[in-house]
Amino acid sequence: MNGPLLIPQYDRLRGWLSVRRMQQGILAAFVGMLGLVGYNFARTTFVDIPSVLFTAGAFIALLKKIDPAYILAAGAALSILVFGYLP
What we know:
Layout: H1 3-13, H2 17-45, H3 49-63, H4 68-83
Helix pairs in contact: 3-4
């Protein structure tokens, strides 16, 4: 519950140039790390055609506002059909 207590302090400090530069640096580091995680995830995940097709289908389904539970269930069923059960 410290959030509301810190808001007045942030409002007072956000006008300072050094605080704005610190925020920009933190944001740049976060975006860089997020990009690296996304790159590593894509590099290890998209190793075959079915994986790419499943991802594209799920992305299109999300854009069409289909419930994520249905997308997850369809992906699980298709994965079992395409890749089989794990031992």
